[in-house]
Amino acid sequence: MYFLIIFLQSSDAEEGKSKKGQYEGPDMDLAAMLERDVLDSTPGVRWDDVAGLSEAKRLLEEAVVLPLWMPEYFQGIRRPWKGVLMFGPPGTGKTLLAKAVATECGTTFFNVSSATLASKWRGESERMVRCLFDLARFYAPSTIFIDEIDSLCTSRGASGEHESSRRVKSELLVQIDGVNNSSTTEDGQPKIVMVLAATNFPWDIDEALRRRLEKRIYIPLPNFESRKALININLKTVEVATDVDIDEVARRTEGYSGDDLTNVCRDASMNGMRRKIAGKTRDEIKNMSKDEISKDPVAMCDFEEALAKVQKSVSPADIEKHEKWQAEFGSA
Fold it and tell me: Which cell locations does it reside in (predicted)?
């Protein structure tokens, strides 16, 4: 039985390797680099790992997940969206949502940033964009997630725009346009490639890209219930004292982003350790056991200290700008 399991595991591994080796596009070296740097076949994030944002989850499920589960329904006028843009203040969970989408629908995940597609050689950045979409079609169904897309696709014609930057934008627009118009599987079904993008500056992106990202979803700061859920998710790996009032912490963190709230929980969870090592020498700290350091549960006083130190990172003016852009250009 043991040898059978080993054989099956090695066979699966070889099968995965052979599938990768089957890609035979014009730029094998670029494809190998992209596979190494941006391909993530198992992001491992579920919907339950993302606190709140129920409306954003519903919209993403309708735009991305359901077309993969019900391809016969999403035909003609119901065709899948070419792309989805998630915008909102920093630290609200846009990247986490993208990974959850890829996990929930079982697609191959390409995590791309502007640095990934940058090259000092003339013409290579455009080739990378083309190769990325070729790879995505090869591994279809797949999700291409472009984080901070505003740094890659600012408005064309802006002052100081370099010619190479303009060519990359043009190639990206062409590839998004034809993302699902070619290539079919062996049974005749189209190879579905979904483009997900995220930005903190939606007003900076090119108008033509905004049109191609047909679903534009606002990811707001967490509300009271979402903050409670996020605090519970953050504290699930540590012991919590009975005096901790999660509702009170959630009330006092209004205006905090998801990242801000995580920082509050992290800081509070480390206060017990800080008390334990206070006044001790380096050798004494090294000789302390893990149980000795971590046996103190996180108490309400730890949250009081953390809240006094960790302030919100998103300004009301920033939120107002996002809400104004949502009212003008949002499509969700």
Answer: Cytoplasm, Cytoskeleton
What are the DSSP calls for 108-138, one per residue? Answer: EEEEE-TTTT--SSTTHHHHHHHHHHHHHHH
Q: What is the CATH number of the domain that holds 299?
A: 1.10.8.60
- Please report, in range form, the residues annotated as the binding site: 88-95
The pLDDT confidence band at residue 11, using thresholds 50, 70 and 90, is: very low
How crowded is the C-beta side of 164, counted as CA atoms within 13 Å? 11
- The pair of three-digit structure tokens given for residue 29, joined into one six-digit string: 């070296």
List, as residue ranges, the binding site for ATP: 88-95
Q: What does DSSP say about strands 108-112 and 39-40: parallel, antiparallel, or unpaired? A: antiparallel
Phi, psi angles (nearest 5°) of residue 178: -105, 20
Distances, alpha carbon 23 to alpha carbons 30, 119, 238, in Å: 12, 22, 45
293 part of a folded domain: yes
**Do 186 and 67 share a structural domain?**
yes
- Is 4 part of a structural domain of the chain? no
DSSP for 226-247 reads: HHHHHHHHHTTTS-B-TT--HH
Query: Which pTM does this prediction carry?
Result: 0.80
- Six-digit token string for 270: 């480390």
Q: Cβ(106)–Cβ(234) under 8 Å?
A: no
**Burial level of 231, CB count in 10 A (0-12/13-18/19+)?**
buried
Same domain for 92 and 139?
Answer: yes
Q: Which two tokens stand for residue 28?
A: 């094998």
CA distance 103 to 46: 6
**CATH code of residue 118:** 3.40.50.300
C-beta separation of 126 from 168 below 8 A: yes
Question: What is the domain range of residue 257?
Answer: 224-312
Domain membership flag for residue 318:
no
**Nearest one of 120, 149, 144 to 134, comparing CA atoms:** 144
* pLDDT tens digits for range 256-302: 999 999 999 999 999 888 888 888 888 888 888 877 777 788 999 99
Going from the C-alpha of 28 to that of each of 14, 71, 180, 229, the distances in angstroms are 20, 31, 22, 45
Residues 168 and 301 in one domain: no
